[in-house]
Amino acid sequence: MSQQKLLLGDEAIALGALHAGLGGVYAYPGTPSTEITEFIQGNPLTRERGIHSRWCTNEKTAMEAALGMSYAGKRALVCMKHVGMNVCADAFVNSAITGTNGGIVVLAADDPSMHSSQNEQDSRFYGKFAMVPVFEPSNQQEAYDMMKVAFEYSEAIKEPVVMRLVTRLAHSRASVTIGEPNAQQQLPLSTGRQWVLLPGIAKKNYAVLIDKQPGMLKAAEDSTYNSLTLYPANKGKMGVIACGIGYNYVTEAQPKNVSGVLKVSQYPLPESQIRQLAANSDSLLVVEDGQPVVEQDIKAMLGTGYVVKGRLSGDLPRTGELNPDSVARSLGEETGACFDASKNVVGRPPALCPGCGHRDVYNALNKVAAEYPNARIFGDIGCYTLGALPPFQALASCVDMGASITMAKGAADAGAFPCIAIIGDSTFTHSGMTGLLDAINDHSNITVVISDNLTTAMTGGQDSAGTNKFEAICRGLGVEEEHLHVVVPLPKNMDEITRIIRDEINYDGVSVIIPRRECIQTLNRRMRKERALKEAAKK
Amino acid sequence: MKKDIILSGVGGQGILSIATVIGEAATIAGLHLKQAEVHGMSQRGGDVQSDLRLSTEPIASDLIARGQADLIISMEPMEALRYLPFLAADGAVITSSKPFINIPNYPEEAALQAELKALPKVVQSDIDQVAADLGAARSSNMVLLGMAAKFLEIVSPDTLREAIRHIFASKGDSVVESNIRAFNAGIELSE
After folding, report:
1. Which of A460, A536, B103, B115 is surrounded by the most beta carbons within 10 Å?
2. pLDDT of amino acid A465
3. Does B174 reach chain A within 8 Å, measured CB to CB?
4. How distant, in Å, are the alpha carbons of A173, A261, A270 from that of A282?
5. Among residues 318-347 of chain A, which lie with CB inside 8 Å of chain B?
6. Is any Cβ of chain B less than 8 angstroms from the Cβ of A492?
7. How is chain A split into domains, by residue range?
């Protein structure tokens, strides 16, 4: 029996995966993908079936564990934000060479416009790079439906498949018709040798992957998610290729002067439909959210004589997410404001919460750093990146997960002093530990601050892999006991904290200071829950 | 019939609860709905916004085009003005009149008021005060929803009340009743 449910794109993906007979989700939190794993964690089916859903330390460990689950015959979902694909790229690209047993769907949630990210990279490139199929749902219903199709397809071709979302679908809600859950998939444990990527085996596997390409193309051309609609009355005018949610903006604009619309939601590109549309048109407009992946491919496919418009030609903006206005304009259908933008409105940037421990950490760091003319504080990814903004303006850098420690090390190697790194607890276990080991082995002159709020705060308070383990991890990596400190970041402890920071800056070697205080958001949530429980007990 | 609504405010003010209630009402009324939310970084005291689209017909775009919003419902006056380019010519602005000042360069209140008053359809009120006077201090967002009710048209006030009862049911009868009282007070304010 089917039923209607109001779901975020992320939730539709999660429920689709559960209903496809999922064995486990492996993920590290990252906007806009976090809600997928959270939904699976909270679903009754997860407990009933013993579906794996605990957060992983990073995207690479997630991808590898998913590959292991696939080896053992179950279906695995790997979820991450787009930049997570860089972290798991080694495992991901090689998973196309080993092939799969149980189905694997690698979900990458891209963030065009960088609402909460450092770049606009487009995960469809990764699909092409690894030579595996990519699905790109245009709406919440497709997001739900495609999960089952994607897992079945992965098992049919014995390759991982990529599911690509963008922020506007991940975080938009709509009604979805849902069906009954399938039984949990269980294929036999793999016995093949293809998993051992010694050169001799990898070469054979790579040839197999290349042999699968025509089949992937045929599947995309036959896919119900790729559909061509021609408007014979407009033959010879511009044709439109609309990818993923780009299709919604094209539909919204109701273009009256186009020769046809090809909706693309499954890759590799359906070449026969593209050629058919091109033959009926004088030019093609490519409407795709993210980078001009398809525009480039179509230019190559049709040759230099054929006019292809899109983000490269300037018909659509080169950067930022698509919106109904930019797409309407590219189709010659004007939309327009009726009221001018207000002259009084000013920006309201996000800030660290009042009472947040990171605030006390920055107050202390800034106080000590002011004593050195060339002090540099290298930052990292998390709430505490907001320390770059007023009133703190403390950070010299924020690049990628873990780069605070290694950039501080490199700068110290070059003679800069003092070099301070600030990194959050979850980011440290994600990608900071290996950099710290480098620094210790090199006896680098750096001071590392692990600002521990006992959670992965920026994405909403998910469990942090290293909680209660940080001192042990640091000792294990070789931090000397007398240069490892734990402090409580509160205004009343400011003298103690600044003294320790000053002493450790002056120590020529690696020191680690761990200011530890629970995130104010998770603390409030926990207290509300406890109050509610107490009141319930009274009744 | 369609209604395109922009909800706005400052992270933590509760615009998503308004969206949830309207969404539930739309579901009860059997309408099509799309609602794009903002999660992540921008929730830390920054500006937040949600596009909510209701229609008797299927909806394509998750986002509202410029000049198309029938309503801007805002928990904060400057945040209401931020989305003016999206407001339709005959669109209405329903907003709290009370500034939320967490930035050093917040504009002069008089300038914001002059701009708001120059718009063709505006309903504003100090919703925090109204809610506090009712003894329902945590329900100011439902006062705002009440103020917007007569402009929503596509869902009736009764359906919105039913939705409030569904959404807050798990929090107990007294919470449901405070929210209903706040909603009713909002309706009176826009009469």
Report:
1. B115
2. 96
3. no
4. 37, 13, 19
5. 323-325, 328, 335-342, 344-347
6. no
7. 3-222, 227-330, 357-523
Give the helix ranges, DSSP H, for B53-172: 77-82, 109-117, 127-133, 140-152, 157-168
Which residues does chain A have within 8 Å of residue B69's beta carbon, measured at their own beta carbons?
none
- Rounded average pLDDT over A29-41: 97
Question: How far, CA to CA in Å, does A441 sit from each of A3, A86, A337, A427, B143?
Answer: 59, 26, 60, 21, 61
Has residue A242 got a pLDDT over 70? Answer: yes
* Residues across chain A: 539
Q: What tokens appear for B18 in the block?
A: 């308004």
Give the pLDDT score at B42: 58
* B107 upstream amide cis, omega within 30 of 0: no
> In the predicted model, what is the mean pLDDT of residues A508-522?
97
Residue (of A21, A360, A334, A321) closest to A180 by Cα position: A21
ipTM associated with this complex: 0.94
Tell me the CATH number of domain A227-330, given options 3.30.70.20, 2.60.40.10, 2.120.10.30, 3.40.50.920: 3.40.50.920
Here the tokens at position A79 are 């979820």
- B48: containing domain: 2-99+106-189
CATH number assigned to the domain comprising residue B29: 3.40.920.10
Contact A316, A330 (CB under 8 A): yes
pLDDT bin (cut points 50, 70, 90) of residue B43 is: low
Q: Which residue of A has its CA nearest to B91?
A: A338
User: What chain A residue is nearest to B120 in terms of C-alpha separation?
Assistant: A339
Number of residues written out for chain B: 191
Total number of domains in chain B:
1
pLDDT digits (tens, 9 = 90+) for A303-341: 989 999 999 999 999 999 999 999 999 999 987 899 999
Q: Write out the two tokens for A421.
A: 């790194």
Query: Which member of A336, A348, A458 has the closest CB to residue B103?
Result: A348
pLDDT higher than threshold 80 for residue B38: no
Spell out the residues 6+ positions from residue A295 whose beta carbon is closer than 8 angstroms to its own: A286, A288, A308, A310, A311, A312, A313
- Integer Cα distance of B91 and B103 in angstroms: 29
CATH superfamily of A3-222: Thiamin diphosphate (ThDP)-binding fold, Pyr/PP domains (3.40.50.970)
Phi and psi, residue A156, nearest 5°: -65, -40
Residue A145 predicted with pLDDT over 80: yes
- What count of other Cβ atoms lies within 10 Å of the Cβ of residue A71? 18
pLDDT at B41: 59
**Distance between CA atoms of residues A180 and A182, nearest Å:** 7
Task: Assess whether pLDDT exceeds 90 at residue B40.
Answer: no
Mean pLDDT (whole number) for B33-47 = 80
Q: What is the pLDDT of residues A294-305, one digit of tens each?
A: 999 999 999 989
Q: Are A140 and A7 in contact (CB under 8 A)?
A: yes
Chain A residue closest in CA terms to B81? A342
Whole-number pLDDT of residue B11: 87
Rounded-to-integer distance, Cα A259 and Cα A196, Å: 50
Per-residue pLDDT at B66 exceeds 90: yes
The pLDDT assigned to A70 comes to 98
Whether residue A135 contacts residue A161, with contact meaning beta carbons closer than 8 Å, is answered with: yes
Is it the case that residue A64 has pLDDT exceeding 90? yes
